[in-house]
Design a protein that fits this description.
- By secondary structure, the protein is of the alpha+beta class.
- The chain is 17% helix and 26% strand.
- A 5-stranded antiparallel β-sheet has the order 5-4-8-7-6, with no helix packed on it. Strands 1-2-3 form a 3-stranded antiparallel β-sheet.
- Strand 7 and strand 8 form a beta hairpin.
- The protein starts with a strand and ends with a strand.
C-alpha cells in the first residue's frame, strides 16, 4: 500500500529543534492522511521515544499535552512540533543503558532495511479501523471536547528492542492540527 513508509528521516518529521529531536525520538513510520480521509492531505507520523518512568525530575515537565501516557505534537507545515519542554526526557544514570540499547537496535533495524526491507503493512496495525486497546480506552479529546480520529497502532518492539516495548496508538485532529500518541504496555 503506497502512502506508508517505515523510518522516515527525522528532518521530514520534525519542524524545528532537530538536534534535540534526534536525541530523543526515533521515527517509526509516516502515513499519508489521505489513506484515512480523502479530504485530508499531508502526512502523520509514528515516533518512538524512551522516557525514564523513574526519574522524579522529569515529572516537572509533564503537562496536559504530554503527561506520561500520551504525547502531543502540533502539526506545523506538515511536520511535528513537540508540545513539551525537552526536560520531559531527563533521565537517571541507571536508565541510560536502556536508551543506548534502543539507539543500537534502531540503528540495526535501519541497516537491515537496506538489504531486506519490511513491508510497512506488516507493522502498522488497525489503519483507519478501531484500536485494540491493551488497557482501557484512552481516546484523546480535541479542544472542543470531541474524540480525535484514530489513525493506527504499532508495537514499538517491532523496530526498537530496548525491553521497554509499548503499543503506540496514533490519533489526529484536523481542526486543532495536532497528533497525539497514546502509549500502553501489556
Amino acid at each position: 500500500m503506497s502512502g506508508l513508509k517505515l523510518c522516515p528521516d527525522i528532518s521530514d518529521v520534525f519542524y524545528d529543534q532537530l538536534d534535540e529531536c534526534r536525541k530523543h525520538f526515533k521515527p517509526l513510520a509516516s502515513i499519508d492522511l489521505s489513506l484515512i480521509d480523502k479530504k485530508w492531505d499531508g502526512q502523520i507520523f509514528l515516533v518512538y521515544f524512551n522516557d525514564d518512568p523513574y526519574c522524579e525530575e522529569s515529572r516537572n515537565y509533564l503537562n496536559d499535552d504530554c503527561d506520561g501516557t500520551k504525547v502531543t505534537f502540533d502539526i506545523v507545515d506538515g511536520k511535528y512540533k513537540f508540545k513539551a519542554d525537552f526536560g520531559y526526557f531527563i533521565t537517571n544514570d541507571d536508565w541510560k543503558e536502556w536508551l543506548e540499547m534502543g539507539d543500537k537496535s534502531y540503528s540495526e533495524f535501519l541497516e537491515g532495511q537496506k538489504t531486506s526491507p519490511t513491508n510497512p503493512k506488516d507493522l502498522i496495525q488497525k489503519l483507519n479501523k478501531k484500536p485494540k486497546w491493551l488497557q482501557s480506552d484512552e481516546t484523546p479529546l480535541n479542544s472542543k471536547g470531541q474524540k480525535m480520529k484514530f489513525i493506527c497502532q504499532m508495537n514499538s518492539g517491532d523496530i526498537v528492542n530496548d525491553y521497554c516495548e509499548e503499543e503506540i496508538f496514533l490519533f489526529y485532529d484536523p481542526v486543532d492540527k495536532v497528533a497525539v500518541q497514546v502509549h500502553q504496555i501489556d
